[in-house]
Amino acid sequence: MILGGVAVNAAIFIVNDLNNRKIGVYNRRVVKAVGGKAVPILLTILSTCFGLIPFIMEGQNEIFWFSLAIGTIGGLVFSVVGVFLALPVFLWRKNGVR
């Protein structure tokens, strides 16, 4: 649930910025929307990953928290790929005009 929420909110954040940009070629607006929202999205993901590092440091002593931290960090790293690579590909238009 955490990972889906972060990835979906990041995608909504980017698409909203894209919809607010009205001037220019569509594909350039996609690149600008993704680039413009990259810093806040990455800061959110990185702060969550760094916040979970103490649970990894405890190691095998706390099985639940260790597994939760590893799974969450792995999912967040994968969501970066989805948000910054897959989403722009799906938003990209062949002729780039609209």
From TrEMBL:
One of its GO terms (molecular function) is xenobiotic transmembrane transporter activity. The chain crosses the membrane at residues 38-57, 63-92. SUPFAM superfamilies: Multidrug efflux transporter AcrB transmembrane domain. Coiled coil: none annotated. The keyword Transmembrane applies. It comes from the Bacteria. One of its GO terms (cellular component) is plasma membrane. Keywords: Membrane, Transmembrane, Transmembrane helix. This is AcrB/AcrD/AcrF family protein.
